[in-house]
Specification:
By secondary structure, the protein is mostly helical. The chain has 13 helices and 2 strands. The protein has a two-stranded antiparallel sheet. A hairpin with a 4-residue loop joins strand 1 and strand 2. The termini are far apart. It binds Phenylacetyl coenzyme A (FAQ).
């Protein structure tokens, strides 16, 4: 009966075993994973835009080479993740169509602008830092193909994080104007980076079931706290100030306290009203249309090969 299948499934998960594509799984487990993995894939693809914006204007050849490599890695992450979702029976065409139509979610963080070169440093340091915090535990997520994809993704993310921190370091040790640029970028990205971890635990509808299935290994608030604790000393080392007057070490908790977060802003960004939502979607749609000839040529070539083999 389905009841005993469900129980055996949960026992298997509780024993820290992986679920593989051909294994039986509850439909809701499959749907939750397709949702999370495809949103993650879309985030990587849309996430290429804020930094792609600076490739032509990187301040040196060395910076340009590193930035191109990073943005290219993000395309690669998107492709592994779409493939992981396909192992659950999701169709690539449907996932892409949902992104292009605006039906699918992608991370709120990529709807913020990058007006200066220092934003590239801040994204690498904070956004990739947050991504690592969230994704290292996903290397132990219960679905095998997702867990294995995360191993490589996290290795690449740690290069991205160092790349960003090193940009911040150069600016923070530069002229007063450069240090000011770094501080302003930090001011822009700090709160959005904290929002990235998702709603507070008591307002996170998917958390309880996802934790039970070991899809998520830690709650949104736990990961957010871990990120704050990790980042405060890094900011101190740079000589920059985190833009939160309530940020303070709490001896009793053994963690940093921080100020209330603007959840109304988070909800607005999710509804499409962030500073760059429209621009990101318009660019993605244009790029998809501009690339149609490549997809058509590749399909025509594949057809020709198939016909030749059949003959
Ligand atoms: N933005 O019940 P929960 C990267 C949605 S890193 C937009 O807590 P869940 C690397 C959530 O989907 C960024 N939507 O949901 C990079 C749900 O909506 P739904 C991507 C958000 O899934 C760096 C609703 O709110 N990383 O790309 C956000 O249990 C630099 C309720 O929330 C991942 O995707 C948000 N920030 O927990 C690339 C990591 N937060 O679907 C380029 C994997 C929540 O019910 C440059 N994902 N929502 O309509 C996860 O760990 C989880 O899915 C969470 C959300 C933690 C994001």
């Amino acid at each position: 009966t389905p009841v005993s299948l469900d129980r055996r499934f949960q026992d298997w998960i509780d024993a820290e075993r992986k679920i593989e594509p051909r294994d039986w799984m509850p439909e809701a487990y499959r749907r939750t994973l397709i949702r999370q993995i495809s949103q993650h894939a879309h985030s990587e693809i849309i996430g290429m835009q804020p930094e792609g914006n600076w490739i032509t204007r990187a301040p040196s050849l060395r910076r340009k080479v590193a930035l191109i490599a990073k943005v290219q890695d993000e395309a690669g992450h998107g492709l592994y993740l779409y493939s992981a979702a396909e192992t659950l029976g999701a169709s690539r065409d449907d996932m892409v169509a949902d992104l292009l139509s605006g039906k699918a979610k992608y991370s709120s963080i990529f709807n913020y602008p990058t007006p200066s070169w220092a934003d590239i440093g801040a994204i690498g340091w904070l956004v990739d830092g947050a991504a690592i915090c969230n994704q290292v535990p996903l290397c132990r997520t219960s679905y095998g193909p997702y867990a294995r994809a995360m191993v490589r993704v996290c290795k690449e993310e740690s290069f991205h994080q160092r790349q960003g921190y090193e940009i911040m370091m150069a600016l923070a040790q530069g002229t007063p104007e450069q240090k000011q640029m770094a501080q302003e970028a930090l001011n822009r990205w700090w709160i959005p980076s904290l929002l990235m971890f998702g709603p507070p635990d008591d307002q996170s509808p998917n958390s309880a079931q996802s934790m039970k299935w070991k899809i998520k290994r830690h709650s949104n608030d736990d990961l957010r706290q871990r990120f704050v604790d990790m980042t405060v000393p890094q900011a101190e080392f740079l000589g920059l100030t985190l833009p939160d007057p309530d940020l303070k070490w709490n001896e009793e908790r053994g963690h940093y306290d921080f100020g209330a977060l603007p959840w109304d802003e988070f909800q607005a960004v999710l509804k499409g009203h962030g500073p760059c939502n429209r621009q990101r979607m318009a660019f993605r749609n244009k790029t998809f249309a501009d690339g149609a000839w490549v997809r058509e040529a590749a399909s025509a070539y594949a057809e020709k090969q198939k016909a030749r083999q059949a003959a």
